[in-house]
Amino acid sequence: MHRDQQDAQQFWLAVLGAVRDANAAGSSAQPPVATPAFDGRAMVDRVIRELADLGDRTFLVIDDLHEPASPEAITQLGRLLANLPPRVHAILAARRDLPLQLHRLRLAGELTEIRSADLRFTLRETRELLGRSGVSLSDAGAALLHQRTEG
């Protein structure tokens, strides 16, 4: 998503455009355009329908989700996640927790969360990576690198 994109309509047009780009059969469809009477609920329904039309297992990836500041888009995203077609999996990447209503997905075992602590290297892993990369650092240097990069 684009930095400081605060318009829910632009967010959903970008998502819909990406879904259409992924659908070879839907590539002849007109690109989505902004309208004065934006209906977020209808747009989410449209995205869900077009995702359902994709025949294969599909991954919807939305990166930098912390960037769009539109509360409306985030609320609508929660609705999309709760109603994804069976073969569609969503991968969301953000630098902070968002006010998404994900408790039902958590309880149903349909949500996997990977947090920064899960991605952080241990000091031993940092040393191993450096060694395999041909980088020679003293123990103190490796420890300092590990500390400054937060793993």
Q: Which characteristics define this entry?
A:
single chain; 151 residues; mainly alpha; 47% helix; elongated; disordered N terminus
End-to-end separation: 27 Å
Instruction: Summarize the helix and strand pattern as letters.
Output: HHEHEHHHH
Summarize the biggest pleated sheet.
2 strands, parallel
How does the helix and strand content classify structurally? mainly alpha
- Helix fraction, binned, reads 40-55%
- pLDDT < 50 runs, ≥5 residues: 1-5
**Radius of gyration, taken over Cα atoms and rounded to an integer in Å:** 20 Å
Tally of structural domains: 2
Helical segment count: 7
Mean pLDDT: 85
The fraction of residues assigned to DSSP E strands is: 5-15%
Shape: elongated
Number of strands: 2
In which order are the strands of the major sheet placed?
1-2
Question: What is the fold's blueprint, element by element?
Answer:
Blueprint: H1 8-22, H2 40-53, E1 58-62, H3 71-82, E2 88-92, H4 103-107, H5 116-119, H6 123-132, H7 139-149
Parallel strand pairs: 1-2
Summarize, please:
The protein has 151 residues and is mainly alpha-helical.
Explained architecture:
This protein is mainly alpha-helical and 151 residues long. It has 7 helices and 2 strands; from the N terminus they run H-H-E-H-E-H-H-H-H. Helix 3 links the parallel strand 1 and strand 2 (88-92). The longest helix is centred in the N-terminal third of the chain and has 15 residues, at 8-22. It is elongated.
